[in-house]
Write a structure and sequence with these properties.
Keywords: Metal-binding, NAD, Oxidoreductase, Zinc. Its cofactor is Zn(2+). This is Glutathione-independent formaldehyde dehydrogenase. The chain is α/β, with parallel strands linked by helices. It has 2 domains: 214 residues, Alpha-Beta Complex (Quinone Oxidoreductase, Chain A, domain 1), CATH 3.90.180.10; 161 residues, 3-Layer(aba) Sandwich (Rossmann fold), CATH 3.40.50.720. 26% of the residues lie in helices and 23% in strands. The strands form 4 sheets. Strands 3, 4, 5, 8, 9, 16 and 17 form a 7-stranded mixed sheet that branches. The protein has a 6-stranded parallel sheet with strand order 12-11-10-13-14-15, with helices on both faces. Helix 8 packs parallel to helix 9. It is globular, with a radius of gyration of 20 Å. It binds nicotinamide-adenine-dinucleotide (NAD) and zinc ion (ZN) (2 copies). The site of one zinc ion has 6 residues, from loops.
Amino acid sequence: MRALVYQGPYEVAVQDVEDPAIQDPSDVIVRITTSAICGSDLHMYEGRTDAEPGITFGHENMGVIEEVGPGVTSLSKGDRVVLPFNVACGFCTNCRRGKSAFCLTVNDPGTAGGAYGYVGMGPYPGGQAEYLRVPFADYNCVPLPAGTEHESDFALLADIFPTGYHGVELSGMQPGDTIAVYGAGPVGQMAAYSALLRGASRVFVVDHVSHRLDIARDIGAEPINFDDGDPAQQITEALGDYGTDRGVDAVGYQATVSSGEEQPAVVLNQLVDTVRHTGGIGVVGLYLPSDPGAPDEHSAKGELLYRIGRFFEKGQTMGTGQADAKRYAHQLRDMIIEGRAEPSFVVSKDIPLSQAPDAYARFDKREDGYSKVLLHPGMD
Ligand SMILES: NC(=O)c1ccc[n+]([C@@H]2O[C@H](COP(=O)([O-])OP(=O)(O)OC[C@H]3O[C@@H](n4cnc5c(N)ncnc54)[C@H](O)[C@@H]3O)[C@@H](O)[C@H]2O)c1
Ligand SMILES: [Zn+2]
Ligand SMILES: [Zn+2]
């Protein structure tokens, strides 16, 4: 089959790879109809992880079941499904608690969590390909209505919609709260949108890519451009108060300042300033224990200069980690079906798999029109 394979920094190629096959009785094989490119893929694409050439990318996958293992009970050939990016077993201690991003059985001993097509997340090829093997399929597939309706909305259930929602959940947001979201990429947009769905009174979105801030304004958030000055100060001034109730980091360790210089802890520290005393911070932007392209030797080991003193003094709380996408995917699916949520406002491109290398380069440059790219292997 055809698949998008990592070749090395800034280089991906569509090439022939082996077809996936049923390996365990609980597997299914899915024919991919949509697989999205994610900001998380860019960390690997830019050579800013330990990813080795040869990985098939793609953790945001949906499609139609092509083949069913003999141990699968709830799914049949022809079913339309979306696959939350976390590969998980469903029966370990963490899965039982809903913490499917920290599954204890799908990765090496001593580590937790699995994902399709991601470095360090187990031996699971990604779905930017014609077909995908899904382990523990009864648990890892989220059933969808048959047909092609809401394809772009449902595709976002694999990662960014539940991840944005999770960022808001980690922040402890309650209806009526004010919240600041750092990052107007797809994840930040979904966090802002989730906060609005959950009854936030005011939502600020911080970035410096103006066309991304325009999208945030269109959904009812208040854009803050960090090129115009310290974002925490801009927000507290607009608020006329000491700080927002909640904050979300949807940027991660490749955060930059106005000049374009990377400062890995800048968003974490600005959130300490932005959020009020005893407020909550949800961190879904990615931080890694190792970064081969880090700006200094400490960041290379994931050690950042975090203002823990001010954080402690303000009595804030912080939640972090990969999102347990499966925990929210069914409910968010039902909101899409009933017309209460339409996250596809963030989607800007639907293209065949063969155009993925060009789309990676443009998404990586945050070009206008490349806010969220959906790949469709069937369009080739
Ligand atoms: N926790 C999870 O489960 C999970 C899931 C998906 C993505 N992620 C992570 O979320 C992050 C965002 O993903 P995305 O797809 O939206 O990526 P993206 O790269 O498209 O968006 C990041 C945005 O942050 C902006 N930015 C950079 N520095 C900033 C700063 N100092 N202040 C405010 N904005 C700043 C960039 O201009 C960009 O628009 C990535 O780190 C990604 O790996 C985490
Ligand atoms: Zn993703
Ligand atoms: Zn598990």
